[in-house]
Specification:
With 436 residues, this protein is an alpha/beta fold. 29% of the residues lie in helices and 13% in strands. The protein is built from 12 helices and 11 strands. It has helices spanning 2-10, 14-33, 94-109, 114-128, 172-185, 204-213, 269-272, 294-297, 308-311, 335-341, 389-403, 421-427; strands at 64-68, 142-146, 193-196, 218-221, 229-230, 239-240, 264-265, 276-286, 290-292, 349-360, 382-386. The strands form 2 sheets. Strands 1, 2, 3, 4, 5, 8, 9, 10 and 11 form a 9-stranded mixed sheet that branches. The longest helix is centred in the first third of the chain and has 20 residues, at 14-33.
């Protein structure tokens, strides 16, 4: 409503602006008066510090690297729809971000240069895949998967000024840093790299940052055109859900019990054909999942028109109210585990990255500043990196669970019981529900 106020006021439609201002005031009053009880997990399932489960993955098993530098982001960024979006180059220091990504890669691999670091990752990954102790081979394909939620899919590739322009998603700078590493240090040809979120598009704001420096990389878009590579579906389903039709359905957003069972999905061909995947997710909380990182980023990897059916496998499928989640608790079917374990998704990911430069309070909301130390009411300005997707999601969950509490934010979704159920199940099969 406040966005409408500003729009109509600028166009001298004062009476309409006044009406929306009244709506905003009344709605704000009601929202602040609403009862939002704090939800705590069952104490039987609260993980104590340093209580590990499962087997750590990576050169240094379970290692997670956190890089934090407040200089990476513009503290005074307004992040509005009139030329101040957080992802614009003027709101980030690319030199600082490049150093953060470079140092993270070296810390993760234990090497002293970016090139040696990538070679170590490739050798470790190929050994795990029974390909032998070999590094990257010319011609092998790499797909960098991003979270481009709510970008335009109408072919215009221009969303400046739209409400979704400032929503929290993967920002372009960490991806640019990875492209520089792969091309300049790891020796990967631009033509063998693809970037994007196949179910969405590559908007001009991102295109100009990436394409200017790397014109021969393939930028994947659901609509194609204007230099983008159109996302094409695979020929047959290869993703099979382990609930066997019991949970996932094609119903509606507000009733997970409606609709017909969904047993499988096709994946996009760019995913099927990739020899390696790099997953670059965004640091966000989520109304339906509690949190959203690498696993939920794959809600954009299947080829259906939307991800309604897979949301039924989350802790709170309808998204409201979070004080009464529909599938809370532990030991339930979690679709995220299927995605983390699939051979072409989590199982084909050589590097997991969470873009925490800005941080989001919801699926389709603008980034917010983090109040807890060491951020102290500034943007989180962080990059998280790991070979171990369970360990990385666990660390990022800890950050969001500590930040999004009722005394700091209205969005307390990470506090729902069972938000980390998928991590328990992905770490150790003894935590799987009966029948899976």
């Amino acid at each position: 409503a406040m966005v409408k106020v500003k729009t109509h006021w600028q166009n001298a439609r004062y009476s309409i602006a006044a009406m929306f201002l009244m709506i905003a005031v009344i709605s704000g009053f009601i929202a602040f008066q609403a009862d939002r009880p704090f939800v705590y997990a069952d104490s039987r399932y609260l993980d104590t510090p340093n209580q590990s489960m499962g087997i750590g993955q990576g050169i240094f098993p379970g290692r997670v690297v956190w890089a934090w530098n407040p200089d990476a982001t513009n503290e005074n960024c307004k992040n509005d729809n009139w030329g101040e979006a957080y992802h614009e180059p003027k709101n980030s220091d690319m030199d600082v971000i490049q150093k953060m990504v470079d140092q993270s890669l070296m810390s993760l691999s234990g090497e002293t240069s970016v090139g040696e670091g990538w070679n170590a990752l490739f050798i470790h990954f190929n050994e795990k895949k029974n390909r032998g102790a070999v590094g990257y081979q010319p011609g092998q394909k790499i797909f960098i998967k991003t979270n481009a939620v709510s970008t335009p899919v109408d072919g215009s590739h221009n969303y400046s000024g739209l409400n979704n322009y400032t929503m929290a998603k993967t920002s372009p700078q960490p991806v640019l840093a990875l492209l520089r590493q792969l091309v300049h240090s790891a020796g990967v040809a631009q033509e063998d790299i693809s970037v994007g979120d196949p179910i969405q598009s590559v908007p001009n704001d991102y295109w100009e940052i990436w394409h200017t420096e790397f014109p021969n990389v393939k930028y994947i878009s659901i609509v194609g055109g204007n230099g983008r590579t159109k996302a094409l579906p695979g020929s047959s389903p290869i993703l099979f859900y382990s609930d066997r039709g019991a949970v996932l359905r094609s119903g509606d957003w507000n009733d997970a019990t409606k609709g017909i069972p969904i047993y499988d999905d096709k994946l996009y061909s760019v995913i099927e054909q990739a020899d390696y995947m790099i997953n670059v997710a965004a640091l966000k909380v989520h109304e339906r999942a509690g949190v959203t990182f690498m696993a939920k980023c794959h809600f954009g990897s299947h080829t259906r028109t939307n991800a309604l059916h897979v949301h039924n496998g989350l802790v709170n499928p309808d998204g409201w109210p979070t004080s009464d989640p529909k599938r809370d608790g532990y030991g339930l079917y979690r679709v995220l585990v299927d995605l983390m374990g699939h051979e072409k998704l989590g199982g084909n990911t050589i590097l997991n990255v969470v873009d925490g430069l800005w941080g989001g309070p919801g699926a389709n909301l603008r980034p917010v500043k983090f109040k807890m130390a060491p951020f102290n009411n500034d943007w989180p300005s962080s990059i998280f990196m790991s070979q171990d997707q369970v360990a990385l999601e666990s660390v990022c969950f800890d950050f969001l669970k500590a930040e999004f509490t009722s005394d700091k934010h209205a969005e307390t979704y990470p506090q729902m019981a069972g938000v980390d159920d998928h991590l328990h199940q992905a770490a150790d099969s003894t935590n799987w529900p009966a029948g899976v």
